[in-house]
Specification:
By secondary structure, the chain is an all-alpha fold. It is built from four helices and no strands.
Length: 136
């Protein structure tokens, strides 16, 4: 049975299909964004709760003092070197496991590079990072 549809009708039908596909793409993109937001909120909540459990005195601090505490104790060269070491270890584990997701691919902000030329230190602060081992 031959189709009696006109070219204009076929074009309209294809445009309707394109619109449906675009609507489905938009729905999936919204869903992906929502899932990423929920995962981020969960991660922030879990990590913040762990910090409070380790340092319960931080609970009573105002936001201003809490942020100051973090800047003075974590967001410094020591913290950045420690984080760089831990990120490198995680990336090696991911590569060994065949995982391709890295901090950049998952859109996790990377640590700011250290402003000093000091070698990285181990996670325990012992100066036993890769650079220290190679130098020794």
């Amino acid at each position: 049975m031959a189709s009696n549809k006109t070219t204009a009708a076929k074009i309209a039908e294809q445009r309707t299909k394109m619109e449906q596909i675009q609507n489905e793409i938009n729905r999936l993109l919204r869903l992906e964004k929502e899932e990423a937001r929920k995962a981020r909120n969960h991660r922030i909540s879990k990590r913040g709760a762990h910090l409070e459990s380790l340092l319960p005195d931080t609970i009573m601090l105002s936001d201003k003092r809490f942020f100051s505490f973090l800047e003075k104790t974590v967001a410094n060269d020591f913290g950045r070197r420690t984080l760089a070491t831990l990120v490198a270890e995680q990336e090696r584990e991911n590569a060994a496991d065949g995982a391709s997701a890295t901090a950049r691919e998952s859109k996790t902000p990377a640590a700011k590079p250290s402003q000093t030329a000091e070698p990285p230190i181990g996670a325990d602060g012992s100066g036993t990072g890769d650079a220290a081992r190679q130098a020794g």
